[in-house]
DNA sequence: CGCATTTGTCGAAACGTTTCGACTATGCGT
DNA sequence: ACGCATAGTCGAAACGTTTCGACAAATGCG
């Protein structure tokens, strides 16, 4: 396997000269450069990543830190991972995947001490996140997907949850709906300070307050059955509900089943808008869902770029980015139904 | 940051001794070992991954090679990636993600020459895969998810497509269905030699031949609209069809729409079994799908373990693994409908 | 024309490990 | 008592880069 020394020999120069030519660290005459690159070409030389990293103290590897839940990542996170990998590659970095045990802070410390990676992108940041505190304390470079408390000087990229909820409610209100509920993710996630759950909840409350409406919301585990039960519970308590906003994509099938079991159809009898989800999910349901779609790909990319900018000492264009979601109207939302008339019709029909 | 030299000083031994103690490369007296580990503890020392890799010529990093398609990975692949990362971690390896351009072989060669990784796990292997040929030629260690031609001595893990298709057909036959079609993935994938598409096709043909039935199958792009059209085309040509087997999960919603638009219901008027998919997908549809579910998590793990065994010179328990899929009966399959009677009823009703 | 700067290059010292050969005790068989 | 393997340790040479200081030649400037 060719090494830098063999290249230097063949080109008739010192190894340091080869290094300068390769990295542009110092000026090199055009003629020498030519000779060097020719030698490189002929030998098929590629710098040894580890040696380079050891000498330069920069491995050009970054890690993506993702939570090690039992049921793997959600859909949204997938596009995320691939786009992060692509973004890293475009910047000549490698991306390593570190799953972490949420409760084992020490593991994370160990990992950073190995000096394998120059920095980490932390996924699923919580409101008070011990990991962030630690990284900060040991001054290890990082960027975040999501936000946490006291983050004024930290780089992050997140979804603009507040605006997204507002857009969802506005869409429904535009169709005449007034009795709207919010179906959150699990109470556990909320109480753990999971950003999306906390922020959407707060946003919904505020928006309803602005509209002088009661804020009806409910937690729901991220699974079919929980969605089914949650919908029924919600309608038992608030029979006048005509629409739901939710970020709980896994519960949606359950909700649809429950609606179906009432002999209602979507969107004639009930409207549903799912926020922060993807087109693929939306099109998988029947009927196809009206959504507010996040550009998750963009998030992975931005998270990586934020980190790399920081590593290279480049000032980022924006240290903190809030991404909007795009409203895509499909077939799960429609005008507010007239339940009284519907009932009368059913009786006469 | 503490280094091996500082540990050696504090313990009053040579650096090489520390190395031996750490790796068990040579015998160390119990007493010295104690002193060394105490020093390590006190200093909070962790070996420098790059230095270790450089000196030992083994980075303990492996790469997962995934295709860089525009629409990102499918759902199935997600669990896959996370389980691979976990398996690597459990074996004290790091996993880096390399997306590759299918057409750029040179890029792959470059990557391997960087000597960053000890080996690669190749995803989505094709029947005649140039990448595999290259890796083989340069004798770079690898394992495969999927199979390719001439792979007798290569390690791989794949799904037992043939058995899976058989199980699907048997399930439908058990319900009385005889007119069954297979909805494949895109013709492009098939012609590119994409293993799953090729193998399921072949299996279906053979099984139908065994049953003395015509083998009706059709290619279909992996998207909603294509599923819709494919179903209609299929039923125009073969009006007696009562069931479909498919591995094209993205087309399924389209198929369901098309069925719905005929005023048919699933499973009363038509049965559908989706193979090599996941529970999450199955539960997302209405009605929940009868599936043959792959343990994708197991695949990622196995692929990684296969590679690591090879790297460590351990003989693998099994060099080649075929994973079965499990039949999960939900609500998209039912007894063969009696179309004639149904029609008569409709006329009289 | 002389002096300071810049350009282009070199050699050597890092970077933090592993590994090899060599050396001293120690215990063994004879 | 004598050689001999073995346990336990050391020092030094890798591994393949980057980076620093030095230096000669070329260039600019008053």
Structure, described:
Two copies of one chain form a homodimer. Chain A has 349 residues and is of the alpha/beta class. The first copy, chain A, has three domains: 44 residues, Orthogonal Bundle (434 Repressor (Amino-terminal Domain)); 127 residues, 3-Layer(aba) Sandwich (Rossmann fold), CATH 3.40.50.2300; 155 residues, Rossmann fold (3-Layer(aba) Sandwich), CATH 3.40.50.2300. Chain A is built from 15 helices and twelve strands. In chain A, the strands form two sheets. In chain A, strands 2-1-3-4-5-11 form a six-stranded parallel beta sheet, sandwiched between helices. A six-stranded mixed beta sheet of chain A has the order 7-6-8-9-10-12. The termini of chain A are far apart. At the A-B interface, helix 4, helix 5, strand 2, helix 12 and helix 13 of A face helix 4, helix 5, strand 2, helix 12 and helix 13 of B. Chain A binds a DNA duplex (30 and 30 nucleotides) through helix 2 and helix 4.
Number of domains of chain A: 3
Largest sheet, spatial ordering of strands of chain A = 2-1-3-4-5-11
CATH superfamily of the largest domain in chain A: Response regulator
Major β-sheet of chain A, in short? Answer: 6 strands, parallel
**CATH architectural name of the largest domain in chain A:** 3-Layer(aba) Sandwich
Determine the structural class of chain A based on helices, strands and strand pairing: alpha/beta
User: Unreliable segments of chain A (pLDDT under 50, ≥5 consecutive)?
Assistant: none
Q: Fraction of residues of chain A in helices?
A: 40-55%
Q: Compute the gyration radius of chain A: what is it?
A: 26 Å
Number of helices of chain A: 15
Query: Approximately what portion of the residues of chain A adopt beta-strand conformation?
Result: 15-25%
Mean pLDDT score of chain A, rounded? 91
Mind telling me the CATH class of the largest domain in chain A? Alpha Beta
Shape of chain A: elongated
């Amino acid at each position: 396997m060719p090494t830098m020394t063999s290249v230097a020999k063949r080109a008739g120069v010192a190894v340091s000269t080869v290094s300068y030519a390769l990295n542009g660290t110092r000026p090199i005459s055009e003629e020498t450069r030519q000779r060097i690159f020719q030698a490189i070409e002929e030998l098929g030389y590629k710098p040894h990543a580890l040696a380079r990293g050891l000498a330069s103290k920069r491995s050009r590897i970054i890690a993506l830190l993702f939570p090690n839940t039992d049921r793997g990542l959600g859909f949204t996170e997938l596009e995320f991972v691939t786009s992060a990998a692509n973004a890293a590659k475009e910047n000549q970095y490698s991306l390593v995947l570190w799953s972490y045990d949420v409760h084992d802070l020490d593991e994370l410390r160990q990992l950073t001490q190995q000096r394998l990676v120059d920095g980490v992108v932390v996924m699923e940041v919580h409101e008070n996140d011990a990991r962030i505190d630690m990284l900060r304390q040991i001054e290890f470079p990082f960027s975040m997907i999501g936000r946490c408390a006291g983050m004024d000087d930290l780089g992050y990229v997140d979804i603009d949850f507040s605006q997204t909820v507002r857009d969802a409610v506005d869409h429904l209100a535009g169709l005449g709906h007034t009795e709207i509920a919010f179906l959150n993710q699990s109470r556990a996630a909320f109480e753990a300070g999971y950003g999306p759950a906390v922020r959407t909840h707060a946003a919904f409350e505020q928006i309803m307050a602005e509209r002088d409406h009661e804020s009806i919301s409910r937690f729901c585990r991220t699974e079919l059955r929980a969605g089914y039960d949650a919908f029924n519970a919600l309608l038992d308590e608030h029979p006048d509900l005509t629409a739901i906003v939710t970020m709980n994509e896994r519960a949606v099938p359950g909700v649809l089943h429950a609606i179906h079991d009432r002999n209602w159809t979507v969107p004639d009898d009930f409207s549903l808008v799912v926020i922060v989800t993807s087109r693929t999910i939306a099109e998988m349901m029947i009927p196809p869902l009206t959504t507010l779609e996040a550009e998750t790909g963009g998030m992975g990319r931005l998270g990586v770029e934020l980190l790399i900018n920081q590593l290279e000492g480049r000032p980022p264009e924006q240290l903190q980015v809030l991404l909007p979601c795009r409203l895509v109207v499909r077939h799960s939302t429609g005008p507010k139904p007239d339940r009284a008339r519907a009932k009368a019709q059913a009786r006469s029909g």
